[in-house]
Every structure is written in C-alpha cells, then in structure tokens.
C-alpha cells in the first residue's frame, strides 16, 4: 500500500507592527520557530508607534519562520514579515512562491493593516484572509464595518483569531488554504504541480 505524496507550500503571515505575527507562528509551529528579533530601543522613538503596545521590547527585523503539518498530507511553511514599513523591501522575496497570506490585524490599530492589504491586493497579488487578533480590551466591530473601513472585497474571508492559541491559529490557516483552493478552482489553476 503506497502513501499519497506529501504536499508542502509557503504561507506568509503579515500585518502591522505589534499585530502578533511572531506569537501566531510560535503558537502553531511544530519545530522551534526561527525568529529574527531586535530590541526596541530609543532609536525607534518617533519611528515605531508603541502607544498600543507599550510593553513591547523586541520586534522582527527580517522574518519569522515555522512549520505545521495539516491532516498528515499538507505541510505549511510559515514566513512572518516584519511589520514596519521600512522593512517592506523584504516582502517580495518572502512572498515569492507562496500559496497565500494571513494578514493579522489589531482592531485597535486597523490603519496598520492597510500596507499589507494593499500589498497582497495590488503589488503582489495572493489569496489572503484577514485574521482579527483578539487583544484584550479591543473593540469588536460588525463585519460590514470592517470591510468598509479596510475597503475589503466581499470574497476575502475575515476570521477571528487568538494568536496565542494553537487551535485558533490552525483554524485561520485552514481558512486560508480553503480560500486559496476555491480561488484557484474558480480561475482554473492548480495550487500544486
């Protein structure tokens, strides 16, 4: 009896500064995640907005990396982008060959999501889902309000997420894979050759 071949693909985890991308990858990775963290120092004063994340002491300066196997036949390689716009020059290299992206959003700072949404809609089109990271004290908004505020098309999934919780993160990744499959079928493309 032969096993079906294992498939693997690349997923991008993007979003604004302090949205929880490193936590998201760390919560789900079945291998110790690779992190490229730098200390938040006085040099970032006036550059990085720490008002919503005053306890943040480090930030991703290149990428985060993790791996998760879904249903024993699909392995996802997760690449987290740095959140600051000054590091966006790295995004093309990270996104090359990816199946899709998770855009992690903090509803206290929705404007921080604009760069990632615009990037994956226009600059480097990839299927994506918007995952609302559930920070304590953050306001909850109706889906229509979020779609209007972020100018999101109706077919883009919006999912709730707790970036600290493995099952919540897994649900977001499954939503992205399903969304990418539906889009590829509607466009007559194959996701994996």
Automatic annotation (TrEMBL):
One protein family per Pfam: ATP_bind_1
Domain of life: Bacteria
InterPro entries in alphabetical order: Gliding_Motility_GTPase (IPR052705), Gpn (IPR004130), P-loop_NTPase (IPR027417)
SUPFAM superfamilies: P-loop containing nucleoside triphosphate hydrolases
Keywords: GTP-binding, Hydrolase, Nucleotide-binding
Protein's UniProt keywords contain GTP-binding: yes
Record-stated family: Belongs to the GPN-loop GTPase family.
Full protein name: ATP/GTP-binding protein
Organism: Lipingzhangella rawalii
